[in-house]
């Protein structure tokens, strides 16, 4: 099956991201009903071993941007960065989009990493397809009925 994001609705795309996060071993996935005010759509955690042999949890604020026929712009990044700056504890920021970032957004991202304490990971459409293709059940569930390559 072909992974074609343009055939999905924004709601289905968001559901796809939640399913993918679970496959990537994210836990405590909370969808934010007030994303416009908070700067992100999902708050989730990952579990990791700390240097002392115990278990630690890493928090992630995840912004999902579904853009039909357009590129993700700087506003989503600024909103997520603002949220991260306000946190008293460390939270990692992630922007997941089906498209690519504009050149202005890429420049801002580089500036932000140098000037501020926040770091935002971007999973663009190319990287997202690569992640999805590693999970055949997700491909089948969301794209299987669309035909073969």
Distance between the termini: 6 Å
What shape does the CA trace take? globular
The biggest sheet amounts to:
5 strands, mixed
**Mean of residue pLDDT values:** 86
* Strand order of the biggest β-sheet: 1-2-3-4-5
Q: Order of SSEs, N→C?
A: HEHEEHEHEHH
Beta-strand fraction estimate: 15-25%
Q: Tell me the Rg in angstroms.
A: 16 Å
Oligomer: single chain
Structural class: alpha/beta
What's the number of helices?
6
> What is the helix fraction of residues, given as a range?
40-55%
How many strands appear in the DSSP assignment?
Answer: 5
Q: Pick out the low-confidence regions.
A: none
Give a structural overview.
This protein has 149 residues and is an alpha/beta fold. It is built from six helices and five strands, in the order H-E-H-E-E-H-E-H-E-H-H. It has helices at 10-23, 35-38, 74-86, 103-115, 125-133, 136-143, and strands spanning 27-31, 42-49, 55-65, 92-97, 120-123. A five-stranded mixed sheet has the order 1-2-3-4-5, sandwiched between helices. Helix 3 links the parallel strand 3 and strand 4 (92-97). It is globular and about 45 Å long. The relative contact order is 0.19.
Features:
5 strands, about 150 residues, 6 helices, alpha/beta, five-stranded mixed beta sheet
Secondary-structure blueprint:
Elements: H1 10-23, E1 27-31, H2 35-38, E2 42-49, E3 55-65, H3 74-86, E4 92-97, H4 103-115, E5 120-123, H5 125-133, H6 136-143
Parallel strand pairs: 3-4, 4-5
Antiparallel strand pairs: 1-2, 2-3
